[in-house]
Amino acid sequence: xxxxxxxxxxxxxxxxxxxxxxxxxxxxxxxxxxxxxxxxxxxxxxxxxxxxxxxxxxxxxxxxxxxxxxxxxxxxxxxxxxxxxxxxxxxxxxxxxxxxxxxxxxxxxxxxxxxxxxxxxxxxxxxxxxxxxxxxxxxxxxxxxxxxxxxxxxxxxxxxxxxxxxxxxxxxxxxxxxxxxxxxxxxxxxxxxxxxxxxxxxxxxxxxxxxxxxxxxxxxxxxxxxxxxxxxxxxxxxxxxxxxxxxxxxxxxxxxxxxxxxxxxxxxxxxxxxxxxxxxxxxxxxxxxxxxxxxxxxxxxxxxxxxxxxxxxxxxxxxxxxxxxxxxxxxxxxxxxxxxxxxxxxxxxxxxxxxxxxxxxxxxxxxxxxxxxxxxxxxxxxxxxxxxxxxxxxxxxxxxxxx
Length: 403
Known about the structure:
Layout: H1 3-12, E1 23-37, E2 40-53, E3 60-66, H2 69-73, H3 76-93, E4 98-103, H4 106-112, H5 123-136, E5 141-146, H6 154-165, E6 170-172, E7 175-179, E8 186-187, E9 192-194, E10 202-204, H7 205-218, H8 244-257, E11 264-266, E12 275-277, E13 295-297, E14 304-306, E15 311-312, H9 319-322, H10 326-329, H11 332-343, E16 346-347, E17 354-360, E18 363-365, E19 372-374, E20 397-402
Parallel strand pairs: 1-4, 4-5
Antiparallel strand pairs: 1-2, 2-3, 6-7, 7-8, 9-10, 11-12, 13-14, 14-15, 16-17, 17-20, 18-19
Helix pairs in contact: 3-5
């Protein structure tokens, strides 16, 4: 860093003659990852560093490569210590005199504070600890503090991943390439998506698309395609990479999962069909007090509707009166109910999902909400059946549910 850049950094941290009395915080993260570069597999390391004042303001951030082979091959604690050394050196370069740095590994903190000693066979760790001790002496005040792993700023993890990614690229002519860690294909860095939910793996667009196709069919949560990674994809980041209809379906499913089946309400307007929780829905306007249990207003399009009949609100009519009217008998809802009766299907008494049974016992379970009921009469099964229908012999059932 030249003198001009150093002075700008000092100004951003507000370092002046009184900096001795200013306490700064340093967050570090060192990572080592096995990466595929072209057709070779190798260990690559990087550190993320964040420096800020006592109010966590005026933050300076940077990423640095960890290139020492002995560090990369040593115990994972070595990478964390190397990152702390880089962070303390970086702070000294900027004129910081009083600092506290945070460790999210209790073992490393015990080593640094001399509450414990590294094993005799960890010579690399011992050497790094000596360097940390020497650097601490160059500050007027320097303290190592514990921090929960979940409290480490995600930006320093991303910076460490960025430092690793910067070492995995190569050029062929005028084109830059990276290997996808999921499929090992050589792709342009601009054709990769960074998973921002914590792992920061950079996955090629093809793998992201395949992930959507496979996990959409299974209805699973969409996870990072990197082998063994359990971080979820940030769905909105995938827009423009995958089919919008597939993405919207996944978002819809994710939203459905957090709303209890009995509370799910959908706007009956075909162009809206917005999913809402009945507990949060406002009542419809100009409603007969007797109808407040079923009158709702869509929070997306503003339509006042009946959640029981699943149609726009039937003014001056009760639900029973409306279902006898010409308006209802010619509505899509009535036509669908007629189809259900004609085909011999049954609606779940709890969530109203239409169920089609293919053989087996007449006492079945809705795959949508797990409610057990009689397929012959629709009576719900509580502790015991509330109907006298005789179930067929056999216990196997094959059902399909659809709305």
